[in-house]
Amino acid sequence: MSMLVLSGVPESIIDGLKSAGVRVVMPYTKIFPDGEQYIRIEEEVDSCIVLQSMYPEQDRRFIELYLALEALRGLNAKCIGVIVLYLAYARQDKRFLRGEPISIYALMQPLKLLGIDRVGVIDVHSESSLRNLGLEVLNVLPHKYMIEKSGIKVEFVLAPDKGALARAKAAAEGLGIPYDNLEKFRDRITGEITMKEKRLDVAGKTVAIVDDIVSTGGTLAKAIENLYKLGASKVYAVVSHALLVGNAIEKLERSGIEELITLNTVRHRELPKWVRVVDCTELVLDIAKELGYRSV
């Protein structure tokens, strides 16, 4: 059995898979002069799992995945599932305003047409949105894993909003420590974020904020600043996918963050020393085994 690894997957994970004895197949790809993509699977493939990450160049990564699945079908190869390290467009999982699409539906429905009904993901923004499409979903919440791998000592876990409360609960219960959440409000027209003041028992404690994505860094920076105002001694951010767009790094640095701990689910540019990247190859292998991968 093989793992077909597409171009969005970081090299560190590819190296980890090879070291673990996985037969990694990487297709030939190119871009035509008009911008269209081309893909060809040159090795023999009988059955496989497809691995992809959807950032950066999200649109290109989705098209590459669709083309790879169709190529496998043309080879009469059995694809037992798809693993997505970071699933883009997952935050638009409902119609917040009239006339909007549910983006995740539009982009994941083609998988069903291409014969895929099982998907493994690392901390998808909304697991229910995939299940509503009739997909069997294996979703891994990695925050306890990240905290343990990084070796930090945490006394309190916090979700930046109610939407991330399940992540905080899973990490805190796994570590045997308390947890809570902040209350965040986003203006759907302007995008402006405000946070309601809330008393939390964090004075003198080391706190880990857990979430799925840090993009522009605005929400996370405000949460960190609030915790320091409440007397927290150290504040870590444990975030699965660090996109860090625009001036996110500058915002977080100004917030006084102790360290940002993230996974190598996306390709990162050069990062400051206070950002620690935890390898997620073990999680990928666990998902692959759950999907039925056998290294034979």
Explained architecture:
The chain has 296 residues and is an alpha/beta fold. It has two domains: 2-140 and 282-291, 3-Layer(aba) Sandwich (Rossmann fold), CATH 3.40.50; 143-279, Rossmann fold, CATH 3.40.50. 31% of the residues lie in helices and 27% in strands. It has nine helices and 16 strands. The protein has helices spanning 11-19, 58-74, 103-113, 127-131, 143-150, 165-175, 218-229, 248-255, 281-291; strands at 2-5, 24-25, 28-31, 37-40, 47-52, 78-84, 118-122, 136-140, 156-159, 179-181, 183-186, 193-196, 206-214, 234-242, 259-263, 275-278. Strand 14 (234-242), helix 8 (248-255) and strand 15 form a beta-alpha-beta unit. Helix 7 runs parallel beside helix 8. It is globular and about 60 Å long. The termini are close together. The mean pLDDT is 95.
Q: How do the strands of the widest beta sheet line up side by side?
A: 2-1-5-6-7-8
Shape: globular
Structural class, from helix and strand content? Answer: alpha/beta
| Whole-number tally of structural domains | 2
> Helix segment count?
9
Rg over alpha carbons: 20 Å
Overall CATH class of the largest domain: Alpha Beta
- Low-confidence regions: none
Task: Give the second-level CATH assignment, the architecture of the largest domain.
Answer: 3-Layer(aba) Sandwich
